[in-house]
């Protein structure tokens, strides 16, 4: 353990010297203070980001994609796929001091990162520029916040194959006029349907299969896309439905099994150093 720690310190020191020795380049977008502060919150929530986000050029950091035309950026941690590297942490809050309307992030994806845990902060409802939210294939859990229903620019929301529970979020077309795809497939949702989804157009792609929502499909769910989604989850919830919700079903929310070993975490950190070293060298060349 001590030898590995010494090796890690040595690598970080070498990395710091390397960064100081190579010339920098200008960011391709102008990052405002609200965006910078939220990116720092990511580092606090997922500590090993500190290693791969050492580059002062935000747009050259692994997992960040910038769009100079719109002066916005995307956080795509799913694009960091180096073997042995794991992000370990939670999703960051949007602090009260951060103006969500000024945060330049248009999409967030942590797809396929099984050590991202915890819940979705309701404060993300203030990230008004979000068009894509992909939290699929993680160990995120808890209830999907109703508050996210105010994200007027959100086009795609994917929560598939994770550990979200309780019922459907109460979202509607008035608050989310841009939403075209909402994927909740294969979670632990055993709460109720939400009648508010009947306000969306029939072009909405909704997937609730692989869950066990209780009760019956709401009478207001008359459009073919909603009926098909309910049937795919449980045909008994549609035709001649007599199902009722029990307290056990409404309160069902098991936590995912998360027990990363110290050795695994250390290995991930050491791997991150090498990933960051390679990525930074490439970005400065």
Automatic annotation (TrEMBL):
Which UniProt key words apply to this protein? Glycoprotein, Leucine-rich repeat, Membrane, Receptor, Repeat, Signal, Transmembrane, Transmembrane helix
What GO cellular component term, any one, is given? membrane
Domain of life the protein comes from: Eukaryota
Name the residues that span the membrane: 263-284
**Signal among the record's keywords?**
yes
Topological category with respect to the lipid bilayer:
Single-pass membrane protein
**Which is an annotated Pfam family here?**
LRR_1
Methyltransferase in keyword set:
no
Signal peptide, first to last residue:
1-26
**InterPro entries reported for this sequence:** Leu-rich_rpt, LRR_dom_sf
Q: Where in the cell is it found?
A: Membrane
PANTHER family reported in the protein's UniProt record = INACTIVE LEUCINE-RICH REPEAT RECEPTOR KINASE XIAO-RELATED (PTHR27000:SF642), LEUCINE-RICH REPEAT RECEPTOR-LIKE PROTEIN KINASE FAMILY PROTEIN-RELATED (PTHR27000)
Name of this protein: Surface antigen-like protein
Organism equals Leptomonas pyrrhocoris (Firebug parasite)
Species lineage, top-down? Eukaryota, Discoba, Euglenozoa, Kinetoplastea, Metakinetoplastina
């Amino acid at each position: 353990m001590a030898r590995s720690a010494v090796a890690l310190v040595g690598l970080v020191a070498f990395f710091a010297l390397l960064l100081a020795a190579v010339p920098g380049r200008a960011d391709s977008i102008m990052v405002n203070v609200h965006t910078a502060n939220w990116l720092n919150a990511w580092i606090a929530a997922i500590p090993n980001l500190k290693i791969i986000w050492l580059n002062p050029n935000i747009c050259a950091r692994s997992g960040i994609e910038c769009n100079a035309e719109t002066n916005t950026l995307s956080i795509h941690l799913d694009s960091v796929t180096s073997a042995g590297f794991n992000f370990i942490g939670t999703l960051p809050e949007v602090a009260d001091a951060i103006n969500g309307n000024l945060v330049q992030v248009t999409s967030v994806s942590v797809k396929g990162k099984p050590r991202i845990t915890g819940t979705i902060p309701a404060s993300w409802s203030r990230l008004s520029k979000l068009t894509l939210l992909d939290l699929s294939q993680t160990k995120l859990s808890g209830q999907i916040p109703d508050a996210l229903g105010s994200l007027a620019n959100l086009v795609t929301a994917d929560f598939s194959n994770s550990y979200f529970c309780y019922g459907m979020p109460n979202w509607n077309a008035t608050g989310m006029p841009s939403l075209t795809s909402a994927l909740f497939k294969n979670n632990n949702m055993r709460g109720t349907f939400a009648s508010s989804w009947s306000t969306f157009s029939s072009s909405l792609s909704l997937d609730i299969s692989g869950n066990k929502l209780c009760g019956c499909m709401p009478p207001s769910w008359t459009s073919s896309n909603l009926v098909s989604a309910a049937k795919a989850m449980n045909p008994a919830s549609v035709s001649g439905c007599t199902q009722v919700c029990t307290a056990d079903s409404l309160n069902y929310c098991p936590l995912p099994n998360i027990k990363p070993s110290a050795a695994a975490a250390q290995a991930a950190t050491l791997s991150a150093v090498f990933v960051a070293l390679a990525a930074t060298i490439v970005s400065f060349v």
